[in-house]
Design the sequence.
């Protein structure tokens, strides 16, 4: 599904999300894996994530191989009721692996 490794490193794929992702997987979905990753972002946003998780989601969006989809996700995060100045900074500042 081409998730950047930070999804796992930062514990952004809990068991409940992994179950949904694996249940919906069909061979050949790799060609449109951005749909799976977009679904994972939206799964988080529907669960009222913590401030720290929103920052991680903003950062991992910058690492996504589909920046068109990731840009839309950043817009969704920016509209989240808990979006703060710190989260906006993470949304506006491309994240690079260290």
Sequence:
């Amino acid at each position: 599904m081409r998730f950047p490794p930070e999804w796992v490193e930062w514990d952004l794929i809990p068991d409940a999300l992994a179950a949904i992702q694996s249940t919906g997987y069909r061979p050949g979905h790799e060609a449109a894996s951005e749909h799976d990753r977009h679904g994972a972002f939206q799964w988080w946003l529907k669960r009222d994530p913590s401030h720290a998780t929103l920052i991680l989601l903003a950062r991992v969006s910058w690492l996504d191989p589909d920046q068109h989809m990731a840009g839309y996700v950043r817009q969704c995060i920016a509209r989240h009721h808990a979006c703060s100045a710190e989260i906006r900074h993470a949304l506006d500042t491309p994240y690079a692996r260290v």
Summary: The mean pLDDT is 91. The longest helix spans residues 51-63. The CA atoms of residues 24 and 64 lie 20 Å apart. Residues 6-92 form one domain.
